[in-house]
Specification:
Helix content is 34%, strand content 21%. It is an alpha+beta fold. Helix 3 (43-60) packs parallel to helix 4, helix 4 (129-146) packs across helix 14 (443-461) and helix 12 (382-395) packs across helix 14 (443-461). The mean pLDDT is 96. Bound molecules: zinc ion (ZN).
Length: 465
């Protein structure tokens, strides 16, 4: 089924029609470059993708295009700044892709993209080369037909998103002036279940820590010492049990202090999403969904913080029985955070709470393994509403508003480092197999996305500054 959309003015549609084959060929060329950022043997391919993108931006009419060294895989920057008095938006996407294994589960080779019906199959066809290509092609069409854009645009494309973005934050901090804008558009998300246009308003952050509990220097005989010394595994289990109540609430004092409560508008937006909790439980393969009392599953996933043990180990794990009191026990524990929780502050609260409940007879050490900030741009923010109008005019229905349970760390980077509001939208269907074998993009969504970008920019051009 082809995604339907409302056409733009005849001159732009005629141009898009006339350039359709060349546009698809260019998209395929982009997907052909195996820009896997995580694998060192693909470093040259990442650079090749950056150079390809820079050339494509120049061909579209973007100025000051540069392949920028950041210390890792290069960034690509370009701008068009001739809309005097109009707002400036900074558009972010990433040209790097995930590794392709398991290779034998692909229908066709991941870097030999093919069109099957309405689907473009290939690694990166969706995440995130589709969104980048849509934005660049929309820009090219506006510049070719209208000779200008309704607002000022700065493009920033990254090559390390799939492998932690470590060089981006320092580069953003060092280039604040160059990146000055009214708004950041992150185009690295997609549509909701049922291929419904969506704006992502919130992303969760993260606090990650390791807990090490030490008893005696070596394992002890449980006959000779059971009942005499503290057992680190028992102690760790009791400490973990104290972190979260049966009602799903995290029991660390101060944990919820900075959480921005869900508004009525937030809760109606969650409630408006087509989502069946029982069906979702079946899909995952669990008997039922559980979590913090008083919130729906979607509210808990997108709008509430939580705490989970990611791994736990210690003591005897071989076959049969071995009667010891282990010397040590360990756990990796992380919290998903929401605005405005600060990962460093949450780590301190976590560490201090464990310190306060660590029983006599063992030593408990808590080490930070990193974190990331949450981000949130409210539904009623003028930029969110402008993007919503552009999507509604294109697809004939208003978008849904979603909050990701996961993180796109750059969302928080733009919000905190540059102090800019962030709007997140993108065009891949929800079942696009991103990060998995047979990743695909819906070419109907792709063509519709180009029209939507034109309209969103027209709407954003009228933003109060
Ligand atoms: Zn992505």
């Amino acid at each position: 089924m082809t995604t339907s959309f409302a056409a733009l003015e005849p001159a732009v549609e005629a141009h898009l029609d006339a350039t359709r084959d060349a546009r698809l060929a260019s998209y395929l060329d982009f997907v052909r470059i195996p820009s896997i950022s995580a694998l060192p043997e693909h470093a040259e391919d990442c650079r090749r993708a950056a150079v390809w993108l820079a050339d494509t931006l120049r061909a579209a009419g973007i100025e000051h295009v540069e392949v920028v060294e950041s210390g890792g895989h290069p960034l690509v920057y370009g701008d068009w700044l001739h809309a005097e008095g109009a707002p400036t938006i900074l558009v972010y996407g990433h040209y790097d892709v995930q590794p392709v294994d398991p290779l034998d589960q692909w229908t066709s080779p991941p870097f030999e993209p093919v069109v099957v019906g309405e689907r473009l199959l290939g690694r990166g066809s969706s995440d995130d080369k589709s969104n980048i290509h849509i934005h660049v092609m929309a820009t090219a069409a506006m510049l070719a037909v209208r000779g200008g854009l309704p607002l000022n645009v700065k493009f920033l494309f990254e090559g390390e998103e799939e492998s932690t973005s470590i060089h981006l934050d320092p580069w953003l901090a060092a280039n604040r002036e160059r990146l000055a804008a009214d708004l950041v558009v992150i185009s690295d998300t997609g549509f909701f279940e049922g291929n419904i246009p969506a704006i992502t308003t919130g992303l969760r952050g993260m606090m990650y820590a390791q807990v090490d509990v030490q008893g005696s220097p070596v394992d002890l005989h449980s006959g000779g010492y059971g009942g005499v010394v503290e057992n680190p595994a028992n102690a760790l289990a009791r400490m973990i049990a104290a972190l979260k109540g049966p009602d799903g609430r995290v029991l660390i004092p101060g944990f919820y202090d900075d959480v921005v409560a869900l508004t009525d508008a937030d809760r109606s937006a969650f409630a408006a999403l087509p989502f069946d909790e029982a069906e979702h439980a079946r899909t995952i393969g669990v008997p039922t969904l559980v979590g913090e009392v008083g919130f729906t599953a979607l509210e808990r996933r997108g709008g509430r913080p939580t705490l989970d043990v990611n791994g736990i180990w210690g003591g005897f794990q071989g076959e049969g029985s071995k009667t010891i009191i282990p010397a040590t026990a360990h756990a990796k524990i992380s919290c998903r955070l929401v605005t405005a929780q600060d990962p460093d502050r949450i780590f301190e609260l976590f560490r201090d709470f464990l310190g306060s409940i660590s029983p006599p007879g063992v030593t408990t050490t808590v080490t930070s393994l990193g974190g990331g900030r949450p981000s949130l741009t409210p539904i009623d923010h003028p930029a969110t509403q402008a993007a919503a109008r552009g999507l509604a005019a294109t697809f004939g229905e208003p978008p849904v508003y979603i909050r990701e349970g996961g993180s796109i760390p750059v969302g928080a980077s733009f919000e905190t480092t540059l102090g800019l509001p962030v709007v997140l939208y993108g065009f891949p269907p929800p079942n696009d197999n991103a990060h998995a074998p047979d990743e695909w993009m819906d070419l109907g969504n792709y063509e519709a996305g180009i029209r939507a970008v034109v309209r969103i920019w027209e709407e954003l051009a009228d933003l109060p500054r």
